[in-house]
């Protein structure tokens, strides 16, 4: 039987937005949006928050998640996500629980919903992918700096309808087979698929403005549902 767990890393410290993970977003803690998306996806057996904060742990449990406390060395501002994922897997294996599929969810893309999580998992279960990410199309003109000069990535300037799109991962959902994660120590590897989301739903929270903007989007959608 395939066992699927989602892991939501939520560190207590946040430089840009203090207590970001439990800051109220449209009347609900930021982390709650991701916990509920995981639980409501219908494809996740266990939703687990990895944190170093008792306050985040308490809020996470209130919204239906399990909590695994992480050691201080995995809760630094410089800490990478992969060691956190591996720590959760190690703790689960101490219970003799060995998941097959790992769903890595970041709180900072709260407009990712249960449907996108379900689509990502099903791409692995039904379409033969080893890992899947969420992202969105972009037709932007990106440049790189070379010394004091700037060079465009696109060689020719074309009309939008004639351009080949690029695809930007949005940090919302990463789904990977456990064996790939353990071997590569990376959130994706093997045959990689992508579930496309709208650019609006892909917005990530890094600043106070991002937080405000996403809150306005959620409020507008809630008002539309009422009417």
Query: How far do the termini sit from each other?
Result: 43 Å
- CATH top level is Alpha Beta
Label the overall shape. globular
Assign the structural class, choosing from mainly alpha, mainly beta, alpha/beta, alpha+beta, or little secondary structure. Answer: alpha/beta
The largest sheet, given as strand count, sense and whether it forms a barrel, is: 7 strands, mixed
CATH homologous superfamily descriptor: Spore Coat Polysaccharide Biosynthesis Protein SpsA, Chain A
CATH topology: Spore Coat Polysaccharide Biosynthesis Protein SpsA, Chain A
| Low-pLDDT windows of residues | none
Mean pLDDT: 93
Q: Kindly report the spatial arrangement of strands forming the biggest sheet.
A: 5-4-1-6-10-7-11
Can you describe this structure in just a few lines?
The protein is an alpha/beta fold and about 230 residues long. Helices cover about 35% and strands about 25% of the residues.
């Amino acid at each position: 039987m395939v066992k699927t767990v989602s892991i939501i890393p939520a560190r207590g410290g946040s430089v840009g937005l203090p207590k970001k993970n439990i800051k109220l977003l449209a009347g609900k803690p930021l982390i709650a949006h991701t916990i509920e998306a995981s639980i409501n996806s219908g494809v996740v057996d266990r939703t687990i928050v990895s944190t170093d904060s008792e306050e985040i742990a308490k809020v996470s449990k209130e919204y239906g998640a399990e909590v695994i406390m992480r050691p201080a060395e995995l809760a630094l501002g410089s800490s990478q996500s992969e060691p956190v994922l591996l720590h959760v897997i190690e703790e689960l294996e101490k219970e003799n629980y060995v998941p097959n599929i790992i769903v890595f969810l970041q709180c900072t893309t709260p407009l990712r919903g249960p449907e996108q999580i379900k689509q990502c998992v099903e791409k692995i279960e039904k379409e033969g992918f080893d890992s899947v990410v969420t992202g969105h199309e972009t037709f932007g003109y990106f440049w790189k700096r070379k010394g004091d000069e700037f060079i465009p990535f696109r060689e020719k300037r074309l009309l939008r309808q004639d351009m080949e799109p690029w695809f930007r991962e949005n940090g919302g959902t990463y789904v990977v087979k456990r064996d790939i994660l353990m071997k590569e120590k990376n959130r994706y590897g093997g045959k990689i698929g992508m579930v496309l989301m709208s650019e609006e739903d892909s917005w990530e929270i890094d600043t106070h403005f991002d937080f405000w903007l996403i809150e306005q989007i959620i409020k507008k959608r809630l008002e539309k549902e009422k009417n």
